[in-house]
Amino acid sequence: MRNDSDGSPRQPRVGTGPRWLDPSRDTAILRAVLAGLAECGYDRLSMDDIAARAHVGKAAIYRRWPSKAAVVAGAILWWRGQVAAITAPDTGSLRGDAEAVIAAVPDLTDADRGILGVIMGVATAAAHDSALAAALEEHALAQPRAALAAILARAADRGEIAPGRDLTLVPDVLLGLNLLRLVTGRPIDRAFVRQVVEDVILPLVTAPLPGPPPAGREPRRCG
């Protein structure tokens, strides 16, 4: 994903159609998707149903998104952006960036918590729908991954993270623990995110790299 000049991930367009498309229809369609998911679930939701709920023709949807999977992933990303923008803060230090990430964790309303249940249903559907899984990977997950990766890359450039450390899986640690939190019906709040960041992420990325075994010592073998 391309980044803006400040290192934060560039906000993707909600739809994929030409710039002259009416943005108010984008919002109507995305709201219709979330309402349809809440009522019907992913498998039973159809493009006809989305069009009826949004009071648009199906062609208006397909001009923006190529498939049901794409518009569902777009709706999830749009909802997350409405709750709180996903950005990569640049405070000048890894600790400062971590504090900014924690401070940006939104206070969810009851309606927002209901959407989290909808998202869990979509994630379950993705387990047996490769097109949906790919759309979630490309759209709904790419932006938070890019934000966390930008924070870590800047910390590595400043020397706060040891050179050569593989950071590729670190964003997924936070995302995976968030998903586990949802599965078990507990809130993703600032206290939880702080615990993950301070007890898992920061110790993991700032620990010194393991050195080679002492010279002359043979590894133990069984037998």
Mean pLDDT figure? 86
Content of β-strand: under 5%
Gross morphology: elongated
Rg, please? Answer: 21 Å
Structural class: mainly alpha
The CATH class turns out to be: Mainly Alpha
User: CATH topology, what is it called?
Assistant: Tetracycline Repressor, domain 2
Strand and helix order: HHHHHHHHHH
- Contiguous runs where pLDDT drops below 50 for at least 5 residues: 1-20
Largest sheet: none
Short description:
This protein has about 220 residues and is mainly alpha-helical. It contains ten helices and no strands. The chain has helices at about 25-40, 45-55, 60, 70-85, 95-105, 110-125, 130-140, 140-155, 170-185, 190-205.
Descriptive notes:
59% of the residues lie in helices and 0% in strands. It is mostly helical and 223 residues long. Residues 1-20 have low confidence and may be disordered.
Q: What is the fold's blueprint, element by element?
A:
Layout: H1 23-40, H2 47-54, H3 58-62, H4 68-83, H5 94-103, H6 110-126, H7 130-140, H8 142-157, H9 170-183, H10 190-206
Helix pairs in contact: 1-2, 1-4, 4-6, 4-7, 5-10, 6-7, 8-9, 9-10
Main features:
223 residues; elongated; disordered N terminus; Tetracycline Repressor, domain 2; mainly alpha; 10 helices
